[in-house]
Amino acid sequence: MNNTYIQKQIQQPTWYLIDAKSKNLGRLSTFISVLLKGKNKVKYTLHVNPKIHIIIINAQYIHVTGQKKSQKVYKRHSGKPGKLKQETFEHLNKRIPNRIIEHSVKGMLPKNSLGRQLFRQLYIYPDTQHPHIAQKPKIITFT
Predict the structure, then answer these.
(1) Contact 18/32 with Cβ under 8 angstroms?
(2) For an engineered disulfide with 104, which of 29, 42, 100, 134 has Cβ 3.0 to 4.6 Å away?
(3) How far, in Å, CA of 46 to CA of 42, rounded?
(4) Could you read off the pLDDT of 93-131 as tens digits, one per residue?
(5) Residue 3 has pLDDT above 90, yes or no
(6) Res 6 pLDDT > 80
(7) Residue partners of 107: CB distance under 8 A and separation at least 6
(8) How far apart are alpha carbons 98 and 92 in whole angstroms?
Protein backbone atom coordinates (compact mmCIF):
# COMPACT_ATOMS: atom_id res chain seq x y z
CA MET A 1 0.00 0.00 0.00
CA ASN A 2 1.08 3.57 -0.63
CA ASN A 3 1.68 5.90 2.25
CA THR A 4 0.05 9.32 2.35
CA TYR A 5 2.52 12.19 2.69
CA ILE A 6 1.59 14.69 5.40
CA GLN A 7 3.54 17.93 5.45
CA LYS A 8 4.90 19.15 8.78
CA GLN A 9 4.47 22.75 9.90
CA ILE A 10 6.82 25.15 8.13
CA GLN A 11 9.11 27.03 10.53
CA GLN A 12 10.48 29.91 8.44
CA PRO A 13 7.95 32.35 6.97
CA THR A 14 8.40 33.65 3.42
CA TRP A 15 7.75 37.31 2.64
CA TYR A 16 6.71 38.64 -0.79
CA LEU A 17 6.20 42.19 -2.06
CA ILE A 18 3.72 42.93 -4.85
CA ASP A 19 3.19 46.31 -6.53
CA ALA A 20 -0.52 46.74 -7.37
CA LYS A 21 -0.08 49.84 -9.53
CA SER A 22 -2.23 49.56 -12.70
CA LYS A 23 -2.96 45.85 -12.08
CA ASN A 24 -6.34 44.30 -12.73
CA LEU A 25 -8.20 43.74 -9.43
CA GLY A 26 -9.55 40.25 -10.13
CA ARG A 27 -6.37 38.82 -11.62
CA LEU A 28 -4.24 40.26 -8.82
CA SER A 29 -6.61 38.94 -6.13
CA THR A 30 -6.58 35.45 -7.64
CA PHE A 31 -2.78 35.46 -7.78
CA ILE A 32 -2.56 36.61 -4.14
CA SER A 33 -5.02 33.99 -2.87
CA VAL A 34 -3.13 31.19 -4.66
CA LEU A 35 0.14 32.42 -3.12
CA LEU A 36 -1.37 32.71 0.38
CA LYS A 37 -2.75 29.16 0.24
CA GLY A 38 0.63 27.86 -0.96
CA LYS A 39 -0.73 26.22 -4.11
CA ASN A 40 2.40 27.25 -6.02
CA LYS A 41 4.56 25.07 -3.72
CA VAL A 42 5.48 21.48 -4.56
CA LYS A 43 4.53 20.25 -1.08
CA TYR A 44 1.09 21.85 -1.04
CA THR A 45 -1.15 20.42 1.69
CA LEU A 46 -4.75 21.55 1.99
CA HIS A 47 -4.92 22.02 5.77
CA VAL A 48 -1.42 23.40 6.50
CA ASN A 49 -0.64 27.11 6.74
CA PRO A 50 2.40 27.67 4.47
CA LYS A 51 3.44 30.80 6.47
CA ILE A 52 3.58 33.06 3.42
CA HIS A 53 3.23 36.78 4.15
CA ILE A 54 2.33 39.11 1.29
CA ILE A 55 2.85 42.88 1.27
CA ILE A 56 0.89 44.85 -1.33
CA ILE A 57 1.86 48.44 -2.09
CA ASN A 58 0.15 51.11 -4.26
CA ALA A 59 -3.33 49.75 -3.52
CA GLN A 60 -4.97 53.05 -4.42
CA TYR A 61 -3.85 52.67 -8.07
CA ILE A 62 -5.67 49.36 -8.69
CA HIS A 63 -7.42 49.04 -12.05
CA VAL A 64 -10.87 47.66 -12.86
CA THR A 65 -12.34 47.04 -16.31
CA GLY A 66 -15.55 48.34 -17.83
CA GLN A 67 -17.87 50.63 -15.89
CA LYS A 68 -17.06 49.09 -12.48
CA LYS A 69 -15.53 52.34 -11.18
CA SER A 70 -18.97 53.92 -11.09
CA GLN A 71 -21.27 50.87 -10.99
CA LYS A 72 -19.66 48.46 -8.48
CA VAL A 73 -21.27 48.89 -5.05
CA TYR A 74 -19.76 47.78 -1.74
CA LYS A 75 -22.30 47.15 1.03
CA ARG A 76 -21.99 46.85 4.79
CA HIS A 77 -24.66 46.49 7.46
CA SER A 78 -24.44 47.34 11.15
CA GLY A 79 -27.14 44.83 12.09
CA LYS A 80 -29.64 47.53 13.09
CA PRO A 81 -32.81 48.11 11.05
CA GLY A 82 -32.30 50.56 8.19
CA LYS A 83 -28.53 50.78 8.65
CA LEU A 84 -27.38 49.40 5.28
CA LYS A 85 -24.49 51.52 3.97
CA GLN A 86 -23.57 51.49 0.28
CA GLU A 87 -20.72 53.15 -1.57
CA THR A 88 -19.25 52.90 -5.05
CA PHE A 89 -15.77 51.74 -6.03
CA GLU A 90 -14.63 55.33 -6.66
CA HIS A 91 -15.78 56.60 -3.27
CA LEU A 92 -14.31 53.64 -1.35
CA ASN A 93 -11.03 53.95 -3.27
CA LYS A 94 -10.72 57.58 -2.16
CA ARG A 95 -11.71 56.80 1.45
CA ILE A 96 -10.05 53.41 2.22
CA PRO A 97 -8.21 52.01 -0.84
CA ASN A 98 -7.00 48.92 1.10
CA ARG A 99 -10.55 47.70 1.68
CA ILE A 100 -11.12 46.94 -2.03
CA ILE A 101 -8.28 44.41 -2.29
CA GLU A 102 -9.07 43.02 1.19
CA HIS A 103 -12.69 42.38 0.19
CA SER A 104 -11.68 40.72 -3.06
CA VAL A 105 -8.99 38.43 -1.59
CA LYS A 106 -11.06 37.48 1.47
CA GLY A 107 -13.79 36.16 -0.81
CA MET A 108 -11.28 33.83 -2.49
CA LEU A 109 -9.89 32.30 0.71
CA PRO A 110 -11.39 29.30 2.55
CA LYS A 111 -14.32 30.14 4.84
CA ASN A 112 -12.87 28.58 8.01
CA SER A 113 -10.21 29.17 10.68
CA LEU A 114 -7.39 28.55 8.18
CA GLY A 115 -8.84 31.21 5.86
CA ARG A 116 -8.94 33.73 8.71
CA GLN A 117 -5.35 32.85 9.61
CA LEU A 118 -4.22 33.29 6.00
CA PHE A 119 -6.01 36.65 5.74
CA ARG A 120 -4.01 37.97 8.70
CA GLN A 121 -0.82 37.30 6.68
CA LEU A 122 -1.85 39.87 4.05
CA TYR A 123 -0.61 43.45 4.48
CA ILE A 124 -1.98 46.16 2.18
CA TYR A 125 -0.73 49.74 1.95
CA PRO A 126 -2.14 52.56 -0.24
CA ASP A 127 1.25 53.95 -1.31
CA THR A 128 4.84 52.72 -1.68
CA GLN A 129 5.85 52.97 2.00
CA HIS A 130 5.54 49.96 4.30
CA PRO A 131 7.10 49.00 7.70
CA HIS A 132 8.26 45.48 6.68
CA ILE A 133 11.70 46.30 5.25
CA ALA A 134 13.42 44.27 8.00
CA GLN A 135 11.79 41.06 6.71
CA LYS A 136 13.57 41.47 3.33
CA PRO A 137 10.59 40.56 1.11
CA LYS A 138 11.13 39.05 -2.34
CA ILE A 139 9.72 41.28 -5.07
CA ILE A 140 7.24 39.51 -7.33
CA THR A 141 6.52 40.96 -10.77
CA PHE A 142 2.97 40.10 -11.71
CA THR A 143 1.88 40.67 -15.31
Answers:
(1) yes
(2) 29
(3) 12
(4) 999 999 999 999 999 999 999 999 999 999 999 999 999
(5) no
(6) no
(7) none
(8) 9
